[in-house]
Amino acid sequence: MKHILVVDDEEPICELFSGFFRRRGYQVSTAGTAEEALAVLKLKAVDLVLLDLGLPDLDGLDLLTILKIDYPDLPVVMMTGQIIDREFLRELAQRRGAGYVNKPVNLNLLLQEIKWTISACQIPAFAPV
């Protein structure tokens, strides 16, 4: 069973994604802050991180940088309600994000993005360090 870590400070979004992915056979953990996300990754094996750009304690792109240092092959898909511009895409590519989705999220398109990203990486779950 693939394990997704959803990182978003909006609890209703975490609950929505958790239920949606669990009903489709995924294991899901959630975190509302960057600190909580890092704590989850130390305790659980995760196949993909779905990461919101706007977190209360750290910018999502900055957390992406930390994740790529500590877990270089862990796929991270960013979520944002902001308008996507070239600067964001450049930053995402430089920090090696696997992709992004816009909020509000179309759940079926998100599921396809998650499936594609996990299968494209073809790597085992990341064990805690």
What does this structure look like?
The protein has a single domain (3-121), classed as 3-Layer(aba) Sandwich (Rossmann fold), CATH 3.40.50.2300. 44% of the residues lie in helices and 19% in strands. The protein has helices at 11-22, 34-43, 60-70, 86-94, 107-121, and strands at residues 3-7, 27-31, 48-52, 76-80, 99-102. A five-stranded parallel sheet has the order 2-1-3-4-5, with helices on both faces. Helix 1 (11-22) links the parallel strand 1 and strand 2. The chain is globular, with a radius of gyration of 13 Å.
Name the CATH superfamily classification. Answer: Response regulator
Helix content: 40-55%
Structural class: alpha/beta
Could you tell me the radius of gyration in angstroms? 13 Å
The CATH level-2 architecture is identified as 3-Layer(aba) Sandwich
Number of helices: 5
* Number of β-strand runs: 5
Written as H for each helix and E for each strand, in order along the chain, the element string is EHEHEHEHEH
Ends: how far apart?
20 Å
What is the CATH level 1 assignment?
Alpha Beta
Segments where pLDDT lies below 50 for 5+ residues? Answer: none
Average pLDDT: 89
**Number of separate structural domains:** 1
